[in-house]
């Protein structure tokens, strides 16, 4: 039997400080998409009604049984249009489901990395080993709207710490046709701003907020700005910054192999990052949502390597076990640290951590 862990109304005192019997049972309703009736409750303090569904990520969803399949396909290189064909949704509904699932996944990923620091089983004396890099893609038009994706991983566990796409100015060889296209776009949309620096800084801040306190060992290529981002984000901590020339062979022996490999996997499993493909992001916002969804899948559901049983989050000591795909899209996570743990059974109160 489901036991509500707290009042779902964030402005109610029983949201942050629930008492054991803060609610009363209040009938049930029969949703169209489920065979069993769903119990309703009422908060004794704020009198708001709610049900088990209020705590679920598929709250108010049509066809919630498709959610797991959608996440699997979106993290397997399938684009939104083909996804809509495969699961028999309209293109609009597939896009709306993708947006909702990806926003949920972003919260889940954030909560497990940052908002639940007490569940960290790892010694803070162990160095935080990180790899950072940027790689390029584009939104809508390859020759005029390039993007740079700043990506950071934890080197040993391959935990995707953060990845975000930001606009950059068109660069490289400019043919007269390309110059004309850029001029047309500038007239139409204004000059394209370069936001890659703020994206990099955001990624470094995310790594710093993960609650580690020991030495930071950072590996990057030789781009000059990275060391200042690192010094600023990890202020007060000992930082060892190792640089590798991007001219040496990009094979397994390359010290940057873990990040190069991560980028190659991203290009493969997020179809919209593939080179010379028509599966391109029309808008940057959707690319960032997709990055968040993929990060959650990668960090908490997928094993680190095919030969592994453990997921990156588990190896980093952030979760006790791998989540199932169903748990990934289960309990809602938009209450930050007071969200139910994704692996909660729903039966007893979740642990305070
Ligand atoms: Zn309440």
What does this structure look like?
There is one protein chain. This protein has helices spanning 13-16, 67-74, 80-87, 91-115, 176-189, 196-208, 226-233, 257-269, 284-300, 312-315, 325-328, and strands at residues 23-29, 38-43, 49-51, 128-138, 146-154, 160-167, 216-220, 239-243. Helix content is 33%, strand content 15%. The chain has a domain at 123-288. With 353 residues, it is of the alpha/beta class. 36% of the residues are buried. Helix 2 (67-74) crosses helix 4 (91-115). The radius of gyration is 22 Å and the shape is globular. It has 11 helices and 8 strands. Strands 6-5-4-7-8 form a 5-stranded mixed β-sheet, sandwiched between helices. Strands 1-2-3 form a 3-stranded antiparallel β-sheet, with no helix packed on it. The model has no long low-confidence stretch (mean pLDDT 92). The chain binds zinc ion (ZN). Zinc ion is lined by residues 7, 9, 12, 14, 43, 45-46, 48.
Taking the sheet with the most strands, its summary is: 5 strands, mixed
Number of strands: 8
Mean pLDDT across all amino acids:
92
Strand-residue fraction? 15-25%
Instruction: List the ions, cofactors and other small molecules found in this model.
Output: zinc ion
Sequence of secondary-structure elements: HEEEHHHEEEHHEHEHHHH
Shape: globular
What structural class is derived from the secondary structure elements? alpha/beta
Q: Order of strands across the widest beta sheet?
A: 6-5-4-7-8
* Radius of gyration, in angstroms, nearest whole number: 22 Å
Low-pLDDT ranges: none
Distance between the termini: 22 Å
């Amino acid at each position: 039997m489901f036991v509500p862990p707290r009042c779902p109304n964030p402005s109610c005192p029983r949201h942050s400080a629930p008492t054991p019997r803060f609610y009363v049972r209040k009938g049930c309703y029969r949703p169209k998409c489920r065979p069993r009736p769903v119990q309703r409750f009422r908060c004794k303090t704020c009198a708001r009604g709610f049900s088990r569904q209020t705590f679920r990520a598929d709250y108010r969803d049509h066809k919630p049984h498709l959610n797991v399949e959608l996440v699997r396909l979106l993290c397997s290189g399938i684009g939104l249009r083909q996804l809509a064909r495969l699961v028999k949704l309209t293109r609009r509904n597939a896009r709306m489901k993708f947006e909702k699932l990806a926003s949920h996944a972003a919260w889940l990923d954030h909560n497990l990395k940052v908002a639940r620091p007490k569940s960290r089983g790892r010694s803070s004396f162990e160095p935080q080993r990180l790899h950072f890099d940027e790689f390029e893609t584009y939104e809508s038009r390859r020759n005029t709207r390039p993007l740079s994706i700043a990506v950071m991983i934890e080197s040993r566990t391959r935990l995707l710490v953060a990845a975000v796409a930001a606009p950059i100015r068109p660069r490289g060889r400019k043919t007269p046709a390309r110059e004309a296209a850029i001029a047309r776009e500038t007239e139409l949309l204004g000059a394209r701003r370069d936001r890659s620096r703020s994206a990099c800084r955001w990624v470094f801040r995310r790594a710093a907020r993960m609650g580690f306190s020991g030495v930071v060992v950072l590996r990057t290529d030789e781009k000059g700005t990275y060391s200042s981002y690192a010094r600023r984000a990890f202020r007060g901590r000992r930082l060892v910054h190792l640089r590798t020339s991007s001219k040496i062979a990009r094979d397994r022996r390359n010290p940057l192999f873990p990040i190069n490999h991560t980028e190659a996997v991203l290009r493969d499993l997020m179809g919209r990052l593939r080179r010379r493909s028509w599966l391109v992001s029309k808008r940057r916002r959707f690319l960032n949502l997709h990055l968040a969804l993929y990060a959650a899948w990668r960090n908490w559901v997928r094993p680190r390597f095919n030969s592994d049983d453990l997921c990156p989050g588990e190896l980093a000591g952030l979760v006790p076990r791998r989540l199932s795909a169903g748990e990934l899209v289960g309990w809602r996570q938009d209450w930050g640290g007071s969200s139910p743990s994704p692996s909660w059974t729903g039966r007893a109160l979740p642990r305070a951590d």
